[in-house]
User: Fold this.
Amino acid sequence: MKRTIAAMIISTLFSLTLAACGGTSQNSSNSASDTSNAELSHKTNAIMEIAQSTGNTNLDPHKEYFGWNDCTYGFNETLFKIADDFSVQPWLAEKAELKDTTWTITLKDNITFSDGDKVTADMVIQNLKRIAEVNSRFSAMADWELTAIDDKTLSITTPKIYVTMTNDLADPSVSIVDLDHTEDIENAPICTGPFVVDSFNASSGDISVKRNENYWGGDVVLAGANILHISDDESRLMAMQNGEIDLYPNVSSSASEIFEANPDLYHLVITPGARLQYYMINSRLPESVRNAINLIVDKNEMSTFLAGATTPAVGPFSVNVPYGKVTVPETDVAAAKAALEADGYSIGSDGFYQKNGEKLVINLSTYSRGSRFLDSLAVIMNRELAAAGIDSAIVEVENPDQYITTGDFDIGFYCMIADKSGDPYYFLNAMLRKGGYLDCLGYDIPEIEAMLNELEYETDTDKRAELANEIVQLTIDNNMYGYVGLFNKTTVLAVGVSGFAETSPFDYYGLTAESRKPEY
Assistant:
């Protein structure tokens, strides 16, 4: 096991070296690299203007999901981070080693908070304990045995082997705060990032940050940034066109067309993301009906309707990661009809399938709040099913918990970040584990539970990918889910503006020490 973890760390560090070198040897790129670093170290007086579609009402990075937006603001950091290729990288930590049920984490030498205080193992432990208390998603941390070995080394002993520790410590909610000196953690937490909070309006969600003059990572290029909470697509577009903002993420499809048509003014970056649109199929539907639904639904049509906002999904994860290698049948309406008719269904006088005198009607449950176009997908599915002879009714609710907690649906739409930390276990465990939050479909497939148990403790990355692919393939073969689309992360920047993590597939990275805009 120790050899496997060591190999993982070496492999990650090797990947980082290649990424930093752009795939070329260090010797051949030293001159260009030195020039680039010299340019990046140059401080400017520029203030970047940014619009965000969501805003925080609280800056405490440990509570709820506030840390995710905080991370885009550039003032909080974690022990590890997830790279653009979904690999885990050290950030505040230098390395992590696993032996049995104990992780030993070593911090980097020069890490300081923005107030100049050193980040110590003791302070990291204080943070982990607080997170367990204030965030229910991390309540299991309360069972960890935390020990400061020395000033820069801590050990975490868990009740059972915890192979995804570094992945989970990369969650922005597990940011490290100076708890000894932060006086108002909800409005001005003292963290380690390249920026510090200058002003914050909890009512509007607007925030201003300024350069951290004590940043452990070196010079910060920008003098600061203003982040405006503008929820409306059209308003963000107008602000960009009027020159009021320098960039914004979550660009709508219609706005993307405008920016693409003006490359002299705007730079549009489209990066395949990790947020998944999918639908759940209740086990109460007969297998023939579940099979027919998945053969009828056309993911390409849905993606086309959303005009580039998503990429059609094969499974819940990117096809570019080792644990995203599954197959799904092509859309085939004729095969869907044949499956239904082989099970005794026939077309009634109204043009819809029925069996034994009872009409087949499918309830399509979706929700409006932050639904990421799921209501539109329900409309498309309703039309596709009708064209194939299946009647359906759309049931729209405010919150998906209204049908997830009860299991009272035939088809239930949902959207979430499936790959939040570069590992498949989080999503699969939530969806498929008996008693898991999203275990609401009523299936009983012992092979899945057994493989989940194995995946929980497997330390070999190749074997983890193999297990995940087998689990996901079973969900496809049993027609438990329909994986519809992975959202593209689309960011527009004014020409000359860069460094808002626009190539990262994750929504929660943004401002960095290298973020820059031209000075006029």
Q: What stands out?
A: The two ends are 56 Å apart (CA to CA).
